[in-house]
Amino acid sequence: MRGTTPAAPHNSPDVLVLGGGLIGLATAWRAAGSGLTVTVADPEPGGGAARVAAGMLAAVTELHYGEETLLDLNLASAARYPAFVAELEEATGLDTGYRACGTLAVALDADDRAHLRELHALQQRCGLDSQWLTGRECRRLEPMLAPSVRGGARVDGDHQIDPRRLAAALLRACEAAGVTFLRSRALRLITAQDRAVGAALDIGEEVHAGQTVLALGSRSGTLEGLPPEVAPPIRPVKGQVLRLRMPPAEPHGAFLSRTVRAVVRGGALYLVPRQDGELVVGATSEELGWDTTVTAGGVYELLRDAHELVPGVTELPLAETLAGLRPGSPDNAPLLGPTALTGLHLATGHYRHGVLLTPLTGEVLAASLTTGELPEPARPFTPRRFDTSPTRAPQEEPA
């Protein structure tokens, strides 16, 4: 890995990206491709939330009431995914695990069916491609579904990617593009003359840069030195996820051929089958601060609900249990682009859509860094939409 020592003061980069998750890596790659010199500070680039995320590219089936503006952003990023993946895989020779497999959202009882019917009607009002199916038609598509399935919505445009493979490919692409990596955690934003000029790192060094991008996910609001008026109002939302192993595909078909989603007992559930035989089951949504403990209750609830949806799931080997933190914002939408502090840009607050929005975030942040303007369709998501919020101290993260 190049860049194991801090950049010298006389060789300060054009851009310092704080955070080497999917969002930070995509921003660094695109910024380097725009001709900027880029340094990324992260103790474990390519790690973080990418290790936990399921990788659903679900612009349609993740639609919620009141999020129609966010839908436009999600659709714009989803449309970029095929070309983004092709470019990334050609540049690195790595497989990202992208699957254009579609998604099936199903209902298990009458109440769930009524709720899903309402969501399907919303999808249709928004002009989205979503086909309503009977329970029998759902089981014809996915024979492992429980007989109790009452109906569902087939969305052939909601796909998936493996976030771990995507992170590895972005990391290699950044290295090939000349991005310098400092395996260090950002401790404090450095400001001078009313502008951001870099950051102090836990290796005892300061890195000065022409522009700084804050892409620390759920920790974005905790960085010392952030003026209260620009500190992003980000909160951690815990999610527990299971990884199972499916049997090899038999002549009659795979265990699951596409992503399957449902609402069980009022909680969202998804099963994401990978081509390599992994089945991701998730996810809980818990407002518990910085806790990332995998709990017996969380595992039980996921397996119980998954068993109701696909009874055969409890016969599969349990390979891994994980918990991670989603970066939630007050309106569940990301904060993208320049802040009121000159030289500081945000790329955080993606909440449920970090993987989906990776291509578009890298693109619009690179444009923001090179031109100073945030392009469409990202303008509704400027960090300045929260400038009128009451001044508050950044949330502290326990050591």
Residue fraction in strands:
15-25%
- State the CATH architecture of the largest domain: 3-Layer(bba) Sandwich
The biggest beta sheet is recorded as:
8 strands, mixed
Report the radius of gyration as a whole number of Å: 21 Å
Walk across the major sheet and give the strand order: 5-6-4-14-15-16-13-17
Percent of residues in helices comes to 25-40%
- Tally the helices: what do you get? 7
What's the CATH class label of the largest domain? Alpha Beta
Q: What are the low-pLDDT stretches, counting only 5+ consecutive residues below 50? A: 1-10, 389-399
Shape: globular
CATH fold topology of the largest domain: FAD/NAD(P)-binding domain
SSE layout:
Elements lengths: L14 E4 L3 H12 L4 E4 L14 E2 L10 H25 L10 E5 L2 H16 L5 E4 H7 L9 E5 L3 E2 L2 H14 L3 E3 L3 E7 L2 E7 L4 E3 L2 E4 L20 E11 L13 E6 L2 E7 L4 E5 L13 H14 L8 E11 L6 E4 L5 E5 L9 H14 L28
Parallel strand pairs: 1-2, 1-12, 2-8, 4-14, 12-19
Antiparallel strand pairs: 3-7, 4-6, 5-6, 9-10, 10-11, 13-16, 13-17, 14-15, 15-16, 18-19
What does this structure look like?
The N terminus and C terminus are likely disordered. The two termini are 27 Å apart. α2 packs across α5 and α2 crosses α7. The protein is of the alpha/beta class. An eight-stranded mixed beta sheet has the order 5-6-4-14-15-16-13-17, with helices on both faces. Helix content is 26%, strand content 25%. It has two domains: 244 residues, FAD/NAD(P)-binding domain (3-Layer(bba) Sandwich); 147 residues, D-Amino Acid Oxidase, Chain A, domain 2 (2-Layer Sandwich).
